[in-house]
Structures
1.
Amino acid sequence: ERTGEPEVVLATGKTPAQCAEAVAALHGGSSPVLVTRADAEHAAAVRGVVPDADYDEAARLVVVPAGEQRAGTPGTVAVATGGTGDLPVARECAGVLGAFGVEVRMVTDVGVTGVHRTLAAARTLTDTDVVVAVAGMEGTLPTVLAGLVSQPVVAVPTSVGYGASFGGVAALLTMLSSCAPGVSVVNIDNGFGAAMVARRILRTRGGAG
Amino acid sequence: ERTGEPEVVLATGKTPAQCAEAVAALHGGSSPVLVTRADAEHAAAVRGVVPDADYDEAARLVVVPAGEQRAGTPGTVAVATGGTGDLPVARECAGVLGAFGVEVRMVTDVGVTGVHRTLAAARTLTDTDVVVAVAGMEGTLPTVLAGLVSQPVVAVPTSVGYGASFGGVAALLTMLSSCAPGVSVVNIDNGFGAAMVARRILRTRGGAG
Amino acid sequence: ERTGEPEVVLATGKTPAQCAEAVAALHGGSSPVLVTRADAEHAAAVRGVVPDADYDEAARLVVVPAGEQRAGTPGTVAVATGGTGDLPVARECAGVLGAFGVEVRMVTDVGVTGVHRTLAAARTLTDTDVVVAVAGMEGTLPTVLAGLVSQPVVAVPTSVGYGASFGGVAALLTMLSSCAPGVSVVNIDNGFGAAMVARRILRTRGGAG
Amino acid sequence: ERTGEPEVVLATGKTPAQCAEAVAALHGGSSPVLVTRADAEHAAAVRGVVPDADYDEAARLVVVPAGEQRAGTPGTVAVATGGTGDLPVARECAGVLGAFGVEVRMVTDVGVTGVHRTLAAARTLTDTDVVVAVAGMEGTLPTVLAGLVSQPVVAVPTSVGYGASFGGVAALLTMLSSCAPGVSVVNIDNGFGAAMVARRILRTRGGAG
Amino acid sequence: ERTGEPEVVLATGKTPAQCAEAVAALHGGSSPVLVTRADAEHAAAVRGVVPDADYDEAARLVVVPAGEQRAGTPGTVAVATGGTGDLPVARECAGVLGAFGVEVRMVTDVGVTGVHRTLAAARTLTDTDVVVAVAGMEGTLPTVLAGLVSQPVVAVPTSVGYGASFGGVAALLTMLSSCAPGVSVVNIDNGFGAAMVARRILRTRGGAG
Amino acid sequence: ERTGEPEVVLATGKTPAQCAEAVAALHGGSSPVLVTRADAEHAAAVRGVVPDADYDEAARLVVVPAGEQRAGTPGTVAVATGGTGDLPVARECAGVLGAFGVEVRMVTDVGVTGVHRTLAAARTLTDTDVVVAVAGMEGTLPTVLAGLVSQPVVAVPTSVGYGASFGGVAALLTMLSSCAPGVSVVNIDNGFGAAMVARRILRTRGGAG
Amino acid sequence: ERTGEPEVVLATGKTPAQCAEAVAALHGGSSPVLVTRADAEHAAAVRGVVPDADYDEAARLVVVPAGEQRAGTPGTVAVATGGTGDLPVARECAGVLGAFGVEVRMVTDVGVTGVHRTLAAARTLTDTDVVVAVAGMEGTLPTVLAGLVSQPVVAVPTSVGYGASFGGVAALLTMLSSCAPGVSVVNIDNGFGAAMVARRILRTRGGAG
Amino acid sequence: ERTGEPEVVLATGKTPAQCAEAVAALHGGSSPVLVTRADAEHAAAVRGVVPDADYDEAARLVVVPAGEQRAGTPGTVAVATGGTGDLPVARECAGVLGAFGVEVRMVTDVGVTGVHRTLAAARTLTDTDVVVAVAGMEGTLPTVLAGLVSQPVVAVPTSVGYGASFGGVAALLTMLSSCAPGVSVVNIDNGFGAAMVARRILRTRGGAG
Ligand SMILES: Nc1ncnc2c1ncn2[C@@H]1O[C@H](COP(=O)(O)O)[C@@H](O)[C@H]1O
Ligand SMILES: Nc1ncnc2c1ncn2[C@@H]1O[C@H](COP(=O)(O)O)[C@@H](O)[C@H]1O
Ligand SMILES: Nc1ncnc2c1ncn2[C@@H]1O[C@H](COP(=O)(O)O)[C@@H](O)[C@H]1O
Ligand SMILES: Nc1ncnc2c1ncn2[C@@H]1O[C@H](COP(=O)(O)O)[C@@H](O)[C@H]1O
Ligand SMILES: [Mg+2]
Ligand SMILES: [Mg+2]
Ligand SMILES: [Mg+2]
Ligand SMILES: [Mg+2]
Ligand SMILES: [Mg+2]
Ligand SMILES: [Mg+2]
Ligand SMILES: [Mg+2]
Ligand SMILES: [Mg+2]
């Protein structure tokens, strides 16, 4: 594959058997195989095919390592969350990065309603290469972080919230409308996508990945 | 009027003559008369009827003082803005409060993309009674301020922005979804409404209003 | 915490064990700990950790009293509802206020389709300090009340209704568009948020809070 | 025409000449011809063809009387407005009813933020047959009126307002979500449509119309 | 009750016990008591309190007759549906009308994709007083009927459909945008509301109701 | 060009000079060059470059014939409109088809509120190959026509209307939700697109096109 | 039936018994009877009535052959999908076409993120008559295919995706906004509708069907 | 400024004098000053203050060079557009990058309806570091490019289009929903924002910036 991307199966709307079958066809090559949005049954079925597949239930992510091991992509990605409810999305992101040997630093629960914690967190991020900022509800974390750090900030809105959060739309619009420089946005709850963006950014540095 | 509110004319969709006629019928009583969203022609027509009416072009606000002067409502309202584009709305708010003799402290251009300025601003607000926070684009200012001060925060989304700001909708949703305590919200660009809320809050303190 | 706010856990999307763990870490300090949107299992798990936690099933609210008891915030908050379907949200609001020792007066089922009942209710509210008005469907109650009383009115749209109610959006837009003075709005179904706003308003009166 | 309806030309998007041409082709029969949304140029062009056409500039309505005069539809329609900004729509409704000889009673500026005026207005409507309630912004007037009168209430949302009024959408949703019995709704700013509904209701009474 | 309306309980979001309790408090007077959106458990609980309550499962409607029997409202209402999927809403409408002794004529499955059936249906409606037209998906039935009959047409959009039907929104917008005269609209799936409108129209004819 | 399509310039957002320059670069080949959404200035500039370019002001369409003349695509396309306001879009469609030598039959003002005219129109279409149905407001024409004819129906929603028409969205949703078989939909006001679809359908018949 | 269409029952919202009853009334004539959106219970009930009915569980489609067998509609329809998640919709389309004896060529998993596979697929489609392109998420497949082939392209958005896919809305808007010529669109997930359009297009070629 | 960002003035809603005043206060430091969305009058006023300010009318961008010249950020950014209508946004992006000494390669008019041109363009991008893909209407360009290149792709939706493009919303949703890896998105028409993201990505490579 010219762009060096992983094989990914989206479990939503597929049976465990269909996921297992897809993984059976894809694994063993030079890329890891990922199953996203996988529940416990999907994971069990995949493990029936590839016993050493790793499953993170909170992240709903199955990782099947590449057949031939490659050197990891060098660099560090910070994954910061606004609240504990954003953790599953952050873990999906971290898990995907981990599958490529990228070093991840998790910084959780640093949402801007306690802005002094946000500032303290920002100070610990100076030696990372990319910041992924995951936030639901009003989704302000990426805006504030981008004013405090100088790395690219990949913003991930989450569907955490209710009412006028509209399943992540409020956070999404906040992030898109942000006048803070250096923020770009992926789909609601798309921890996987943020990881893919972060990894491509690391590769611009000359990484092997 | 049982609730002690001003007479207000919304100039939008009215001719200058209609505004002047409305003001002629309403002024001279115990409440000030306000004309909101007034352009220069509206203001001129009103001044034809009440020469000492005050007009703030940026705020698009005409204030006709009450016939019988009352003591001002005691207390101080801080009006903070995210960017300079939010100033017209902030001035509408301040102008309405001024019409009731409320002391106003303006704090402009303290949006959260320069969060250290936001923090500095918050430190100057401790002796005010109510905070009105005016912000467009992603509209984060009220959320961050509410985590830093202990007063009620009245949030005013503005239509400043473009694209996914959707004429103030992004800021509105941000403010409604905010997980910061003590924030309540008025309509987009509604500086007038925020002033009315702030004044009622001041009156709970026993003000004469 | 500088702003004197409670610790709050949003149970939605968390397991009972996660809620209990969060409460265990937070309780015993100078603020009450609240768990909102808690079902019976969440409540049972929290009580496993703090046996004297109070649970209101209708309100889906767990209240864990502060370790050190403080004087309540002086003042009275009226909580009025349009219909009986709005009661859970009103009770969440009342329960949170109660956790801070605020006196609450509930006035239920005074929606504007029976406007004479609304008027009668308004006459009983004159000695309260803040009015929280909770209404679903078309959400008109706050508008009418604000024309009848002189206190600040905190409007809470609820998701009660169907079709063009759009899960509370119709009520939300009504409340934001209201031309009645003194109305500000919190998120759909956010009884908790309305309580936090009301308490901050009471504190502007010099309450201990 | 089997259903006895007027010929109507919507001027929006048509040139004055096109309107005049359409009227020239339609007038002189047993129904009046109406031109709605007509500005002064449209009206002038139509009058070039039919000199006795009547034009109400505020209502933007041209009425060309029927060639053969018929007895008016018996009955009275009340047309009530929330604010003065709703007058153009109310006048369009009244003008169309007038073209069919229906008696109209206008009751203006009785919006629910001054609910005592709404109640007083409702008391004057008991001898009318249909109530058309025209309101913008939050659009509550029909809901409250329907709880006070026993006639059918035809609700007309108007585009008066700004921000979360969304060009009449807030009022429309309010009216559709209303739990008051007897309310049905026509399109935003559709005074013409409300008149047509009211006239059909009058005809169920055995009117000649 | 001045406007002579029924007592109505919306079962959605209420327990069977709460519905039964509400009915117990309301029945026995001069109006019927209705429970809308009632499932079998709600109905059973109500019957525990008022054994002769009538339940139509398809319509999800419980009718508790008035304590003192009144003469029915004279007149006939046609209830027409586009497809068989619209029947539950049509039956809710018919059931409510029946509770007031109004004669109902059901005309089902006459949607406009088979427009010759629609025309045939319209010819059978000439001797009715009001037409309620119930339609989902694209919701065209009321528009076409209103061009064929001369009665008032009360349009009820239903949530039947998928995709761009958006739960009844497509049908709702069709009905509001209709250029056919004499059409007014109630909320999505609101058969109850259409019945209330139809009954008020019948009463303008001098019915006892 | 493998798919044999015309060169098309969208004038919106381009200066007359930019349009003329684009046409100068594209014309003279084996396909006609079209400029859509062209006002009189755009047309004049294009004619400065290609004097024999044809301009239909109502359709806002410039047609520059192909350099080398080809045989027209055999077959007939019916273009039907609901109201006269839909004519500009219908003419854009007809003009584009004409540029390819396709025979067009225009059938105007046959909207479904006068359904007997719609039926009469349908009877005249039996010998055409494709039906393009153009309608605004509630957009019902394609649904009814598709139940009466057996050709493919290409539906074009127009932005004619106001209020709940939402600039063509109501008509668009109607057309997409239609349960009539054989209807497919193009973008709002996209007469050009409908012509392109119709021409491809004709070519499946073995036309030279 | 003048337009030669099948009888179709939409199972959504109907009980198995209701579906079986409908099929019992409709089958045995000159058209096949289809039940769409049928789950296993619906299918079993229908087979109780017509034992030789065919059921495709993935497509959720029941096909009851016509009583009198007709010659199939001549011609070939290509059904292409972007991802494996789009297969159920593609199979509904193929199943309906099969019921009319139309030849179908399935080309799956050729979405544009692997655009070289899309190009390869396009090369295999040259001898088909119509292309149905089924795609979810961002829904780009029809746009790219229409630039590569010269047949009519019927685009089917699917509800596959999450977040900003909004249940198929993103794909729908992509397809409508496409600047590729020859694309028309049916409702989200409407494989049935695409088949009906494709069949009508084949009949313009002079097919019997 | 800790994050090394430019000073930026958004001209929308500001008078020429206000822009000039803002620039006068900000220029002369170590960062360039930019005025975005500037029309000719804004530009003239700024040049009255800083005569060597550069103005690109198509991009609506004023660039005031930094007082002290710094080394440019090393690296190359490709800016690709779908159509010529997207050029203004692409030029805003390129102009901002140029202000920081970043090398830009423009690749215009390579939209996916002519996918062979898109492929050819992709082949010329292999030696760039970041790809900015600007597209309106259906907005597919970034999705296809991201499947062909291995750099980070910053997607910029534009408001080019009409109807279901909804002012850039269709393109925005396409880009967010894309299943192509490595795509992140900025606000509609936000060429400025894309440049800021691209520059931060370049700086992760160790550039001086
Ligand atoms: N074209 C633009 N898009 C997004 N943000 C911008 C743009 N131009 C300026 N800004 C930001 O908007 C804010 C300026 O707001 P104001 O104080 O109202 O001028 C600053 O944070 C700028 O960085
Ligand atoms: N199906 C229904 N549609 C609309 N309004 C209803 C319906 N059923 C009950 N209502 C109204 O909803 C209100 C009852 O709300 P609640 O007090 O929550 O039961 C009353 O005003 C009823 O008239
Ligand atoms: N999957 C489907 N998509 C669109 N329309 C359908 C579908 N299945 C059935 N229909 C149509 O829906 C109508 C049936 O409605 P009903 O009478 O409620 O069963 C008929 O016009 C069918 O042609
Ligand atoms: N969580 C995810 N978010 C976005 N795209 C995904 C996700 N998981 C898988 N995909 C993509 O979705 C496509 C898989 O579609 P399918 O063929 O239906 O499994 C592939 O292009 C994957 O890269
Ligand atoms: Mg957050
Ligand atoms: Mg701001
Ligand atoms: Mg209410
Ligand atoms: Mg009103
Ligand atoms: Mg129908
Ligand atoms: Mg039409
Ligand atoms: Mg796809
Ligand atoms: Mg493009």
2.
Amino acid sequence: MGVMRIGHINIRVLDMDAARHHYENVIGLLYVDEDPQGNVYLKGWDEWDKYSVILSPAARAGMNHIAYKVESDADLDGFRARISDYGVDVEECAAGALRDCGRSLRFELPSGHVMYLYAEKSFVGKSVGTVNPDPWPDGLKGAGVHWLDHALLMCELDPENGVNKVAEATAFMEKVLDFKLTEQVMAGPDGDVQAATWLTRTSTPHDIAFVGGPVKGFHHCAFYLEDWSDVLKSADVMGKNKVKIDITPQRHGITRGGTIYFFDPSGNRNETFAGLGYLGQPDMPVITWTEDELGRGIFYHTGELNEAFTEVYTEGA
Amino acid sequence: MGVMRIGHINIRVLDMDAARHHYENVIGLLYVDEDPQGNVYLKGWDEWDKYSVILSPAARAGMNHIAYKVESDADLDGFRARISDYGVDVEECAAGALRDCGRSLRFELPSGHVMYLYAEKSFVGKSVGTVNPDPWPDGLKGAGVHWLDHALLMCELDPENGVNKVAEATAFMEKVLDFKLTEQVMAGPDGDVQAATWLTRTSTPHDIAFVGGPVKGFHHCAFYLEDWSDVLKSADVMGKNKVKIDITPQRHGITRGGTIYFFDPSGNRNETFAGLGYLGQPDMPVITWTEDELGRGIFYHTGELNEAFTEVYTEGA
Amino acid sequence: MGVMRIGHINIRVLDMDAARHHYENVIGLLYVDEDPQGNVYLKGWDEWDKYSVILSPAARAGMNHIAYKVESDADLDGFRARISDYGVDVEECAAGALRDCGRSLRFELPSGHVMYLYAEKSFVGKSVGTVNPDPWPDGLKGAGVHWLDHALLMCELDPENGVNKVAEATAFMEKVLDFKLTEQVMAGPDGDVQAATWLTRTSTPHDIAFVGGPVKGFHHCAFYLEDWSDVLKSADVMGKNKVKIDITPQRHGITRGGTIYFFDPSGNRNETFAGLGYLGQPDMPVITWTEDELGRGIFYHTGELNEAFTEVYTEGA
Amino acid sequence: MGVMRIGHINIRVLDMDAARHHYENVIGLLYVDEDPQGNVYLKGWDEWDKYSVILSPAARAGMNHIAYKVESDADLDGFRARISDYGVDVEECAAGALRDCGRSLRFELPSGHVMYLYAEKSFVGKSVGTVNPDPWPDGLKGAGVHWLDHALLMCELDPENGVNKVAEATAFMEKVLDFKLTEQVMAGPDGDVQAATWLTRTSTPHDIAFVGGPVKGFHHCAFYLEDWSDVLKSADVMGKNKVKIDITPQRHGITRGGTIYFFDPSGNRNETFAGLGYLGQPDMPVITWTEDELGRGIFYHTGELNEAFTEVYTEGA
């Protein structure tokens, strides 16, 4: 019961042709649909629901909203009450407000990011089917990602002025949506400022994450790869396509995952991510990174944040 | 709420010194404790609870019991009622009945295997700690497994005589313990005999599995590896130690995982297993394998079951 | 100066359409040419010479000949004299006798297998070109092998009757063609029977190998993969295509390489092979495997030879 | 006949204890000897000759000399004549001038770097032995490198003033020592300035390389890893040991190899390198990188050189 996983993300792109080339031929998502407003719907080959990415034509890059799927329609009623009780405005949207989805809840996280919850989305099925399936389908393009895995949202953080939207968003996710905090960065002179958090509902290390920054923003969304060898392949694909890479293959200290970061043609950051031995569980002790080891937490090998990682982002709504 | 994951397995071994060498130096579990009865307690470096394997000296190999951890103590009351209502005898055991655990429920699956549920076990912590942890600890031995991942229990299957303990155990896990069926083998002339099943509570492909056989038995327990390269390392370790290998590195069709099977010195089958891109979810469509493709389901590369895999097992209690 | 590497192999196939599907779509070689006799010429994407495999339609499977490329045309004169001086008949064939090749030497190894040496073959180039090349080309099919790596020839071995064609072929390769013996299996009650050998001219572990058997035969030819992760991919491809697999992913003790063995539709054995840390050198001490450890030498993980490996082969000419 | 491979490198270090910790516990070389002058001799576990690295205490970091092993003692006479005939001063040193080596030739490359050739060095053997060896030994430390693989020497390059020591050193290696040019960077407005070169005697992509810079310098020496998964492990080891990393896991366009770069405690750059599908051969067409694609040639994923890579180096003698 409750939230199952990330359902989709709605990304704003400046040039739809360039964006489609990127998300389809480079990242390897599959085109599934387009609506009259010109929004394009994509899915990973290993996802069964109709779409996990919506590309929306826009004048400025960024994220419009992020959506999570709950287990049953009845869960929506429960969450509507809990969200409202927490003091957050919540709107129930009719079926179809999210294309091919049932009714949904729309609300803003304390960080200002727009989130939807929904219980139903049209079923399409994995590319490999459900009877005697192959482990992977033929004809994959580019990095051939499995699924949309998580997103990292940038939240306003200004502890000297008492502003910590990371902590507020985190508390909301824990208390209202029953997410489990897996890892956190504690900053500030007294180490009491929750400056970045990773939370999960599955047993992966994170289904959503928050990081402090100057304003509300969209840091990245991540797509799943099978393992470390696919991280190399994914980076090779970026090289072949001359995609702007932010971070070459490396292991995160936080989550232990294998990763590369790069940018879509509109400047939105993407990640391809491979889980490398991690079982998120409700009783797993929270892992804490101190501010002086934050670099190693993010990029375990160098132990240093590159400037772009913290300073480049797109809009959070 | 509910069952979180596999908690531990109690394995019977004929020669404790040989068993300890195997589970500690070859598989790479850590010794944590021993009780006056000579039972030895082991854990994986990445587990935080005190133990996940109990080795018990015995005259015959096999499994004594398997235990799953539930999220809260209150869950035990709910499960006690549900199990009993389902018509299965259930006994509440006092704290300490399972060493270093809180109170527990003891019952037999419809297949006859003994299962415990418990909510509390002494906390030891991962070898890498919780503050600025490294991704893996120094000094790992052998295959250096992360954690106990799952077990496969052999259930009596004789459809001509109306006996199908696979289906009965599966129904129990789904209906009473809220496990999700991820994959199944449907056999028989009409394809209506559920001959093997895989079920999960985490988002991994399976936390327990059942396979039909002549009698109740213990097929194997599996330990988790980081990725496919560690499957090679694990197999190399078996070669170096002249461990009897059942199946060399291969991919399962079912679960897609990378695997090797081998035997402990008592003849109990072990697996080291690496997840390779799979997200178990309540709404994931059940994957069905037909009997003619069962070989490929188990061993995707050859598409053939070896005789040992189906005919060699140890006792289920 | 001298022999550089394996140049090509001429394989007999029973059904050309099935063979082309196998070598092109499954193994991933590229079609380059066909001659009026119906022979089909193929190359790996990473090879620069015109072809490395010739498929010849035939009533019985097997190998017609194997060819090695020497560094310069003048080398052929030197080898012609050395071969002849060694007491082996050698024939000089005009340019074009081997399609698109310069003049060549044709002779039988002491084991009876037909070998050619040549210095020139038409240049086609790697698929990635020579200016700012990508590390791999787009559009690879199946296992996407790099190049023909080596072959294993079966030689008559009957030590009780004083027959050891393995030792004779090996001595010829060492003394006449300047190959370096890297590894050997010593069998017999006194451990003095050279029962299998691996020899190289490059710094890979082997460019040719010989194994004892009841008659002259063709054991397998091997194609090169980038690394262990491609061994998994290659095995997945075999599973997807329902290719008959002999040996699933495993490490050789001999050569340390990662490997799978499988059969082409005619019954010829193929290998896809990834080097895993080995530098063949003239001064590297010869590695010796004793007969009791032969199984581990061939298949390091199980330490056991499967029956098929030693008993199934095709014709050596 | 001729040069076989890199034999050893003599590296200057500022703090021997720190250097030994780095080369032994982090890189994973084995200590073999120490001389009265305080030079420390190390080898890789997979090397059979006594040492491949000499650490020399010094006030400034850098490389004292690099040595290559030739196949036979008689080769030294031939090379002495050829070097001298080329107009380069060459000195014959008595056995023992290089510790535990036979007589050697000492000369300066046209770039000014000191090189030795020798034919004999005391034999120690691989850690896994020569009879039924395991694929890797127990007890490896850190990155557990196999062998010293190659070095990159910085050569003065000032084409506007007619200075190109890269081209001069390359011509010497090709014409006098029979190295094969595998790849080159052509720079300058007309693309006719050979600004970096990679040369080989084995069938690996390079046994030595030269890159242009402001002065003679030592860019890095590289140690061999089994495959891409060991590149991750190596980078993890650097992270665990807080070693200063220059470049995290990435693929070279040039050589296609998997790589990380990092610094020893004295500031000398090291690389751990895994070959990923490359067969150097005398007839392989030379691969040329144009200046505008140099970044991609060095770092295929980003396509950009980092500043440190070109500007940080230690002394070449």
